[in-house]
Design goal:
Keywords: Cell membrane, Membrane, Transmembrane, Transmembrane helix. The protein has about 100 residues and is mostly helical. It has 4 helices and no strands. Helix 3 runs antiparallel to helix 4.
Length: about 100
C-alpha cells in the first residue's frame, strides 16, 4: 500500500483521521469531564503534526498523480470533518 502516492495518502489519511477522532472523542471529554487538560495538549500537538504531514502527502500525491483539483480539495476538506478521511478513502480506493 505504501508503494504508490495514493497508497501513501490513504495510509496517512487513516492515521490523521484516527488522531482527529481520538482528539474529539477521548481527549476532549477527558479535558471537560475529567478535568485533564493535558490530554488535549498532548493529543492536539500530535494531531497537529500529523495534519501537517497529511497535507504534505496530499500535495505529493496531487503532483505525482496529476489528478484534478477536485480530488485535492476534497482531501483537504475531508481532513476537517470527523470521519471525513474515511469517506475520502472510499473514493481513493477506486481511483485509477
Amino acid at each position: 500500500m505504501l508503494h504508490t502516492p495514493i497508497g501513501r495518502l490513504r495510509t496517512m489519511g487513516f492515521i490523521e483521521g484516527m488522531s482527529l477522532l481520538i482528539l474529539l472523542f477521548i481527549a476532549m471529554p477527558l479535558k471537560y469531564w475529567a478535568g485533564l487538560p493535558l490530554a488535549v495538549t498532548i493529543v492536539g500537538s500530535v494531531h497537529g503534526g500529523l495534519f501537517i504531514l497529511y497535507l504534505l502527502v496530499l500535495a505529493y500525491a496531487t503532483f505525482s498523480v496529476k489528478w484534478p483539483l477536485k480530488w485535492s480539495a476534497a482531501g483537504f476538506i475531508a481532513a476537517f470533518v470527523p470521519f471525513g478521511n474515511f469517506l475520502y478513502d472510499r473514493g481513493l480506493r477506486n481511483y485509477k
